[in-house]
Amino acid sequence: MQTTFNPEQLSDPAIARSNEILRSCVHCGFCTATCPTYQVLGDELDSPRGRIYLIKDMLENERVPDARTVKHIDRCLSCLACMTTCPSGVHYMHLVDHARAYIERNYRRPFMDRALRWTLARILPHPTRFRAALGLAKLGRPLRRFLPDPRLQAMLDMAPREVPPPSRNDRPQVFSADGARVMRVALMTGCAQKALNTDINDATIRLLRRHGVEVVVAKGAGCCGALTHHMGQERPAHASAAANIRAWMGEIEGEGLDAIVINTSGCGTTVKDYGHMFRNDALAAEAAQVSALARDVSEVLEKLDLKAQAQPLRVAYHAACSLQHGQQIKATPKSLLKKAGFEVVEPRDAHLCCGSAGTYNLMQPEISGELKRRKVATLEATSPQVIAAGNIGCMMQIGAGTGVPVVHTVELLDWATGGPKPPAVCRDD
Q: Could you confirm whether domain 307-428 is CATH 3.40.50.1860?
């Protein structure tokens, strides 16, 4: 694709990067075949190729974003299926992230949009606030039909019926390895996950310790920044990321770390991109070091000799987009489950998004709801006893549409290696 950015524009590192990405696109259209929003809406502007044209025009002409451009960029899930499909290696993630930041700086949204985005950015990344908001949502559920905006209704619908009490394991501390230590890792405990499902971090810690891993929950680490980053809010996103970088560098420069373990794949994709996010910042070297150590929990477990006892259970594996497309981790979680004795099945169109995508299911409930319906139908068609995923957002989204228990992959592996049966599976007994 030809571009016409002038030298002054190209002096901006963000524009220079977007120019590089735009010039790598050859208009082939392969991305349309795997784009979930194009599959649902059938509009070229709701495909990666269409959005690329909109972004190019907006950035080249330094144009104030119009409502049409914003609508189609907002409809992008950032599932990154297009990056897996693209034969030219177009790094769509960096391009759409830049477009969102540009829109955030230059476009005044309608009042309700601004209010919702402001609220989400100040609640979801903070577990204590989020936990309080979930409690209020339970009280507000009887008033759902009186709410004027479907997005407000979606927020009530997504709130779980029960909110677990905080886990002591999420506090800063060190968990010693059982037996001889083979690795020392930092566990990212996250933000929303700590309010929605404490079983995931608990299972991760037990599983790692059981196999000789010392686990550190670093003081000062928290939200990865993805939730605000994907809304174009660079300042809070970078502040969250910088806090993590400093917290983990304290451990790296102290007793050292073999890995930074992340059990929420959406967070993992972002942390692995810290090096790019901070490439022109004073923290560039430290950010690159953190990104190089970041690992999905399945990548770490693959290196350990898991001592599993077969569990006769048929597991439908849901591949989170941030794992299979964002991090290009496809076979590892399935291999781990199979080695642990589970019967693993996959749904049709496993490459397509479930519609969760961070705050997408709250901000775009109609499109998200259709994607959820399709994903649940393909998962249930495999006749599973349980559904496994590696991302809390996917788990909440799918769990809201099916009666089949939905658990994290680490919960099943923890159970198969001597840990407790996952609570969601117990409730189904």
A: yes
- Listed in sequence order, the residues at least 6 apart from 311 whose beta carbon sits closer than 8 Å to its beta carbon are 340, 341, 342, 412, 415, 416
Q: Per-domain residue ranges for the chain?
A: 7-106, 111-158, 168-301, 307-428
Provide the pLDDT for residue 318. Answer: 98
**For residue 428, is pLDDT > 70?**
no
CATH 1.10.472 fits 168-301, yes or no: no
Give the side-chain half-sphere CA count within 13 A for 389: 29
Top-level class of domain 7-106: mainly alpha
Burial 45-82 (b: 16+ CB within 10 A, else e): bbbbbbbbbbbbebbbeeeebeeebbebbbbbbbbbbb
What does pTM read for this prediction? 0.94
Q: What is the mean pLDDT of residues 168-191?
A: 96
154/369 Cα distance (integer angstroms)? 10
* Residue found by looking up tokens 């566990």 in the block: 187
Q: Which long-range contacts (CB under 8 A, 24 or more apart) does 278-282 make?
A: 278/238, 278/241, 278/242, 278/245, 279/13, 280/13, 281/238
Do the strands 183-188 and 259-262 form a parallel or antiparallel pair, or are they unpaired?
parallel
Strand-strand pairing, 259-262 and 294-296: parallel
Q: Is 168-301 in the same CATH topology as 7-106?
A: no
Please give the single-letter amino acid code of residue 415. Answer: W
Contacts (Cβ under 8 Å, ≥6 apart) of 391: 264, 265, 266, 320, 322, 323, 356
Residue type present at position 232: G
Give pLDDT, residue 323. Answer: 97
For 70-92, what is each residue's pLDDT tens digit?
A: 999 999 999 999 999 999 999 99
